[in-house]
Structures are given as C-alpha cells and as structure tokens.
Specification:
GO molecular function, one term (chain B): oxidoreductase activity
Number of strands of chain A: 22
Number of strands of chain B: 29
Pfam families (chain A): DAO, Fer2_BFD
CATH architecture of the largest domain in chain A: 3-Layer(bba) Sandwich
Protein name (chain A): Glycerol-3-phosphate dehydrogenase
CATH superfamily of the largest domain in chain B: FAD/NAD(P)-binding domain
Helix content of chain A: 25-40%
Number of domains of chain A: 3
CATH superfamily of the largest domain in chain A: FAD/NAD(P)-binding domain
Number of domains of chain B: 3
Structural class of chain A: alpha+beta
Radius of gyration of chain B: 22 Å
Protein name (chain B): Thioredoxin reductase
Pfam families (chain B): Pyr_redox_2
Structural class of chain B: alpha/beta
Strand content of chain B: 25-35%
Oligomer: heterodimer
CATH topology of the largest domain in chain B: FAD/NAD(P)-binding domain
Radius of gyration of chain A: 22 Å
Shape of chain A: globular
C-alpha cells in the first residue's frame, strides 16, 4: 500500500513541510517563480493543525514586542493579507477592538500600551474613559474603568485564508500532498529525501513550516535551537442571537501570561469567548475540558453576563505553538539547503504572507534561483462564507442561474446544496467532515446536524466514493 | 442584498410544514378566501414524523394509529386536499424591512406578505456543544434527529455499540432506531434518580428492548478520535466515574424551540420555554403573528402539535374577521417543580386552550400530583390529578383551574402542592 519510492514524480526544487497558513503562503510565493514546489502536510487537510483553531483575528501588531521580527512581520503581514483578502474574497470584517481595563493596575497600563503600539508603528489607538467604553459596548459587565481602542483590529476567516493560499499555490503548479507525515530525512548529494508514511519525497531545498512539529523537523536536520510546546486554548462559540451584544472585539489588558480571555464576534456571525491558555504535552490532543469550560464561563460572567444566557453553538480547543524563543525563528542553512519558519505562534495568521516574503528573500540570498514566471494564473476567487457579505442563499441572480444555490441544506448556517457541491469538487476537496465544514460552514450551526447532518454526510460520502479507490495517496493530488 | 424578490400575498402564511403547520393549513384553506401558503425548508414536508419509524402517531388528532412516515404523508395530503399551497425546500430566512417573510427556494427569492402568519417551526434537541460535554472531537455523536435522519431517511449505517444520553420518550425512539440499524444500545443514562419515573415506555422498554439504564448519571467526557471509543460517566452523589466503551453516542431530549423568527421579530420569549409568549388562542403580542406546535412547548407528541393547528386556525380566523382580543389578561407562570407552562396568557373572552389543557414540564417524578393555582398569594384552585407528573414528557393541567382568576388580579402561579 505504501509506495517505497515515489518513482512517479520528479524531484521538487523546493518541498515545503506543513500546509498551514504559513506553509501555504510560502508554497504560493515560491510557485510564482520558475520552481517545482511540493507542499506536504501530515494531516488530511490543509490548515488542519494550529491554523484552524485560533481566534481568527487580523492583528495590527499593536502589542507585539517592539523591534522583534514578529513585530515587523505582523505589521507587514496585516496589509498583505488584507490586500490578498480583497483580491480573493477571504471574508474579513473591520470590527475594531477595545482593550478594557477592569482594575487600577490595568488602567495604569493603558498609556504604556499606547506608547508600545506607536513603537510598533501603529498610531491609531486612543484611550477612552469608562462612559465611552460602555457607549461602545453596552452589554459589558459592570466595573470597567476605561479602555484603549484599536480601530484596525479585524476578524477574518482563518479557514478560507489558508485554503485560498494553498489553492493559489496548486493553481500555480505546486503539488499538494496531504497525509504525508515526514518521519526522517536523508541527505543525498543533490537532494534531500523526506521519508513519509506515504512514500519518499525528494527536493533540492526543504522549507520547514511544520507548525507544532517545526522543532521536531528542525531536529531531523541536526539542529537544537528551539523547543515548542503545545498550549491549549479552549473556546466557546455562542449562538448568532448573541451577535448584537458584541460589536468591537473586547480584549483584556495583556499580562505576562498571554493575551487573556477575549470576547469577539466571529466572521460567521457568532460570538466567541476564549481562549484558555494551558501548557500541555500531547501535540495531537485537542480535547476540551470541564475545567476549561468552567474557567471561560467564570470569565464571561464578569466580562459580559448577558452572553451566558445564550446557547453555546460550538466548543473547541486549539493548540498554539508556544516557543521558548521570544521571537519567530526564520533562518536558512545554505549548506543543507534547508530553511525553517519556526516558533510562529498565534500571530502567524496575520503575518503569514510577510513570513513568506521574508523567508523566500532569504532563500534567494542563499542561492535558490528566483526567476519570476510570466502569465501566472489569477488568484482564486473563494466562496464567501462570511456573514457580512452576500451569500448564495440571498443572491437572486445566482439562484436564477443555478437553483442548487436556492436549496438551503444547512438551515442554521444557511449553506446551500450548490456550495456543498462546489466544495466537494474544488481544487482542494475535503476528505472528511471537518474539511467540508471548514469550507462551507455546513453543520457548524446551532443544531450541529440535527436537521442536515445526514444529508451533508451523505453528500460527502458520495463524493469520496467517486474518487478512484486504488490511486496511491501520493499521486492523487499531483498535477 | 440583491433586490429581485418576487412578492407573494397569501391570506395566511404558515412557516413550518410539520403536524402543527399542516393541520392549521388544513383548517384554514377552506375557510379563507385567499391562499394559505405553507413554507417548509425540508425537501419534503411532514416534519419530525417523517423520520420516526415507530407507531403511535395520530391517536388524539386523527383517532387512528399510524407510523411516523405514514402520518406525515397523511398530514401533507390532507392539507393539500383542503386547498393549501405547500412549498418545500422553501426556507424563511428572516423578516424584510416592511414586515414580510424573506424566503429562499430553488425557484428564487420571495417576499411573503400575508394578513396573518403562523410560525410552527418546532424544536430541536440540544447538541453536545450546547450541553457542554467536554472531551475529544469525535465522530459518532448524534442527536436523535440526526440519527433518525441518517438511518430512516438516508439508510446509512451507524456504529455497533451505543450509549444513549437521556431517558425521555424520544430516547426510546432512539433505541428503536438503533436496533433497526443493527446497533446495540449498551447503556442509557439519566440524570434523574428514579428509573420507573421516566416514561410509560421504561418498563416495557427495559424488558422488551433489554436496555440497561443508569440513573443519577451524567456523561462527563467523550473519548476517542476521529471516532468515539468510549464515554466517561459520573454517578451522583458518589462522584464515581466509569468508562463505557462504545462507538456511538446519542444525545436525546433536552429540547430548545426553533425560536429565531420570533426573536428577530422582537417578540417576547418565555424565559422557561424559550419559545414565544402566547395566549390561549396562540396569539403572540404582535397582531397577526401566531405560533403553534412544539415551538411553544418543547416538546409534546405530534398529535398535540396538530391539535394546536386546529386551535391556532380558529384564532387566525377571528383575527382575519377583525375580532379583537385586547381585553384584560393574566400571565400564567410555572413555579418549581414545574419548569415551564404553556400557553402563558389568558385573556378575558378568549377560548380555552386546546383540549382545555395547560401544558407543563416537570423536573421530578410526582405520582399523584396536587396542582395549586395562586393569584396574588391567594389559592384560586387546587386539584389532585389522577395521572402522574413525569420528567421527560408533558404534564397536562385542566385549564378550568384558571376560571377563578380575576382579570385584574395579576399573575397566576401554578405549582405542585
């Protein structure tokens, strides 16, 4: 079943390990040059690791540590990703944010945060008094003393962002190989051979963007320069009926323990409460816990008591890659023709495209020949799954052209049969229910499949059965 | 939004083609001059009975016993024969700025302006997330609705060993569905302390279906990825935890009304049912907007929902004939151990509720309940009922108990003495 040697395909110029948001951005950028690029991921889908379960905020970088690479790349990445979102239709909403101070110490910290934002190149923040805080967020619980506004913080669809970048990479000729977990590497004179559970992949250059696995992959190349540990963040997503309670993102004043618990609208029209921050050992364990729920409810009760009267639509846990370094590690080893983008923590969604530019620039300096391709395909136009934009169920012209867009299949999220069909036949089709849910929102709503679960899983099963069963996993996605 | 919405102007629009909506349509279609339009978002109307393969439907409304799908078909045909227009795959997505219903269907977008609107959208079971059951993100966790759609409508396989959470009437329906699908129910858990209290089904259920039931037990964790491998359960008051291997979990009962259209219309919701506040003629506080079925009382059996349809039709006809009901009224509320009561308002001169029964939900088992109605602290009626109050199904209270209420005497509180 497992091919001992991936004889069917040519060695790549560059193999990118990790099809999260950072790896996909790197693969997309590299495949804009005359390079043969392979994008590998251990999991069954792109964006199925740390990229899928973050707080989905497009950060201005106002609170980064000034002078770090992270600060610079978040600030640059903000504009790059926003511009790319405009071109591809990745949903985002410029909601703005308010940091709320609940005690004298937090209130006293606001001027420092404002100054820090300016050192990070962000000058739009403003300190507001308690009355103004309540004017902006009337549902806030009692006791707020003041706040700091960050008008350009935005919410964005992290699922579509990764998918757009990966789709763009594939359209530009990159070979995507999902379910290829790299277990060891072997150096040959001209190539590095990556051993995976689904065969070998050869490449002249290797880029490690393996997220939570990036320190492990780095060690396979003989390095011992950073360690990651998984930090579990649990989140509660409240019913859309709560959406009117929250307009700007409600941020806590950051402490040494992290950014704390926030309340944010989601791009799908819900309200999110979280995350927790708990250091864990297991890098695969994304389970939720009774303690986490209790902690979040306790926090939520104080920040916005009215929120807790609403139904919980979803709960999930994401693992962030917490690094022992205080900054991103983006370096190229020209001797091994190997590059790493490691320690990219939760800010990586915002910084992804800037990380890609920085890393590819480094690769060029290290000898990778970067010759621009002419006639690149246009960036993909992604289906809008954001609540704010026009969606197919409300688009008369679209329904007139194809009645499948008028057949609402998932009632709670108003996902039509046409959208599910499109996702199942897209450039990077989902292989499991999670993948279909991330592409369409189907089954993500308040009933969690009570009404549509059987229909949606049926459509998925049918589409998967259509695929030839005997195709080797590592050829299926070759172009 | 794109403008092009075709405008429809029936006399009555009914949102939801389950037993309540279909029965209301059947009553109204011959009685009004204009059209009666039923909008159902499923590909086929009929509601929940479509995927309940067991019998027991139609007893109190049709005076005969049917299986769920046959009952659904009968209700659809009867509404159509009566002259109602049924549109399936037609989902009401909200209210337009001018108060019309916005509808998406394969035939395009519509805006429906009716003289009267009946919302009969039913109720759904709370899923795992709303119950806040922690653990792994596992496939194989269903609500009964999801399970029955899978097995009876899509004819798909589920697992081999199931744990059923809850022991309401619907939980035994889940046992039957699992058995049909070749899946053994290895355990049913209930947070209630007494097994004999669950339902009429539990004794025959326990013996005929051989389902082990654990009382005072809740599921504390779901284990397994990508598919469920086990659940962790906790007994109270000991707090002892055990792991039960299984590959399927069915979360049953714990209903919440599909109340979105009421909430987005700014209609007051009852804090206990989470459905709209209605009077005995099933009027909401917005003139011309009515509710019927399990969106009001989550949940009663299909025949009772259908009889709500008869009740609401009478109220709609009065409204269309411009008979006002704006006299004095009293609010009816439930006190412990009753969780909720419906309908919630009695008006002077209005009809009594359907079947002259108030519907209530109880959190503990009471074998010979004494119902007490108080107004302003004064007992206005008390009566011992010959039927028990049982958690997991509706408890019925004769509405004559309200006859002593003074229209100006304020709220009437109903409890068990």
């Amino acid at each position: 079943m497992i091919a001992p040697q991936d004889a069917g395909s040519e060695p790549a110029d560059v193999a990118v390990i990790g099809a999260g948001v950072v790896g996909s951005a790197i693969a997309r950028l590299l495949s804009g040059y005359q390079l043969d690029v392979t994008l590998l991921d251990a999991r069954d889908d792109v964006g199925d690791g740390t990229s899928k379960a973050n707080t989905a905020i497009l950060h201005t970088g106002f609170d980064a540590a000034p002078g770090t690479l992270e600060s610079r790349l978040v600030a640059e990445g903000y504009h790059l990703l926003k511009d790319y979102a405009d071109r591809t239709g990745i949903p985002y909403e410029p909601t703005g944010a308010v940091l709320v101070a609940w005690d004298a110490e937090q209130l006293a910290a606001l001027p420092g945060l404002r100054e820090k934002a300016e050192r990070n190149g962000y000058r739009e923040t403003e300190i507001i008094d308690a009355d103004e805080v309540y004017r902006r967020i009337p549902a806030l619980g009692p006791g707020a003393l003041g706040g700091l506004t960050v008008p350009d913080e935005s919410i964005i669809c992290t699922w579509t962002a990764t998918l757009a970048l990966a789709t763009d990479a594939v359209n530009r000729g990159a070979r995507l190989r999902r379910a290829h977990r790299v277990s060891s590497v072997r150096r040959e004179s001209e190539y590095t051979v990556l051993h995976t559970n689904a065969g070998e992949v050869r490449a002249r250059w290797v880029v490690n963007a393996a997220g939570l696995g990036s320190d492990t992959i780095d060690a396979l190349f003989g390095f011992d320069r950073f360690q990651l540990h998984p930090r579990r963040g649990e989140l509660l997503v409240y019913d859309k009926q709560a959406r009117s309670l929250v307009d700007p993102i409600v941020l806590p004043v950051p402490s040494k323990l992290g950014k704390g618990v926030l309340i944010s609208p989601t791009i799908y029209g819900n309200v999110m409460l979280g995350p927790t921050a708990e250091d864990r050992e297991d890098r695969e364990d994304s389970s939720t816990s009774a303690d986490g729920f209790a902690f979040l409810r306790d926090k939520g009760e104080r920040i916005m008591p009215a929120l807790l009267d609403e139904e919980v639509t979803a709960s999930y846990a994401g693992l962030r890659a917490a690094s022992n370094l205080g900054d991103y590690l983006i370096e190229v080893d020209d001797r091994q023709r190997y590059a790493v983008a490691g320690g990219i923590r939760s800010t990586g969604l915002t910084s992804s495209m800037a990380v890609a530019e920085y890393l590819v620039d480094q690769l060029g300096k290290a000898g990778l020949r970067l010759t621009e391709r002419t006639a690149l395909p246009a960036p993909p136009r992604m289906p809008n799954i954001g609540e704010a934009g026009l969606r197919p169920y409300a688009d008369a012209e679209r329904i007139a052209r194809d009645p499948e867009y008028g057949t609402v299949t998932c009632f709670c999220e108003r996902v039509t049969r046409g959208e599910i069909r499109d996702a199942l036949h897209s450039t990077i089709p989902p292989r499991d229910l999670g993948g279909l849910r991330r592409r369409t929102r189907a089954m993500n709503g308040r009933c969690q499949g009570f009404y549509c679960g059987a229909t949606v899983t049926g459509m998925l099963a049918e589409a998967i059965n259509e695929e030839p069963a005997d195709a080797p996993a590592n050829e299926e996605e070759s172009r | 939004m794109t403008a092009a919405r075709a405008r429809l102007e029936p006399d009555v629009a009914i949102v939801g083609g389950g037993p309540a909506g279909l029965r209301a349509a059947r009553e109204l279609a011959p009685a009004v001059s204009g059209a009666v339009l039923v909008l159902d978002r499923e590909s086929r109307a009929g509601g929940i009975p479509r995927h309940c393969a067991h019998t027991g439907f139609g007893i109190r409304d049709e005076r005969r016993m049917f299986g769920g799908p046959a009952y659904a078909t009968r209700m659809v045909r009867a509404a159509e024969r009566a002259g109602a227009v049924l549109r399936s795959s037609a989902m009401v997505t909200g209210w337009s700025a001018t108060g019309g219903l916005e509808v998406t269907s394969p035939d395009g977008l519509f805006e429906v302006h009716a003289r009267a609107v009946v919302v009969a959208t039913g109720a759904r079971e709370r899923p795992r997330s709303a119950r806040m059951i922690p653990g792994d993100r596992a496939d194989g966790v269903y609500t009964t609705g999801y399970l029955q759609n899978m097995v009876h409508l899509q004819e798909r396989a589920v697992g081999r060993r199931a744990v059923i959470v809850g022991s309401e009437l619907v939980s035994w329906s889940a046992v039957l569905t699992l058995r049909h699908a070749g899946c053994e129910t290895v355990l049913m858990t209930s947070e209630q302390p007494r097994v004999e209290a669950y339902s009429l089904f539990s004794l025959p259920g326990k013996h005929l279906l051989r389902v082990p039931v654990r009382t005072s037990t809740r599921v504390t964790r779901i284990i397994g990825s990508p598919r469920v491998r086990a659940v962790e359960i906790e007994e109270s008051p000991s707090g002892n935890r055990t792991t039960i291997p299984c590959d399927t979990v069915v979360l049953t009962g714990d209903w919440i009304p599909d109340n979105e259209l009421f909430r987005s219309a700014g209609i007051a919701l009852d804090p206990a049912t989470r459905g709209p506040v209605v009077d005995t003629e099933l009027r909401t506080d917005r003139p011309g907007l009515f509710a019927a079925g399990n969106v009001l009382h989550p949940v009663d059996t299909a025949d009772i929902a259908a009889l709500d349809g008869v009740q609401v039709a009478a109220g709609v006809l009065d409204y269309l004939a411009e008979q006002r009901r704006d006299g004095q009224h009293v609010r009816i509320t439930a006190d412990q151990p009753l969780r909720w009561i419906a309908p919630m308002i009695q008006r002077v001169g209005a009809r009594p509720p359907a079947r002259k029964r108030l519907l209530a939900w109880v959190d503990g088992y009471v074998p010979f309940p004494k119902v007490v109605a108080r107004q302003g602290g004064r007992v206005i009626a008390q009566r011992r009922l010959p039927w028990p109050a049982v958690p997991g199904r509706v408890f019925r209270i004769p509405s004559e108990m309200l006859s002593g209420a003074r229209p100006d005497g304020g709220e009437v509180r109903i409890s068990l003495g």
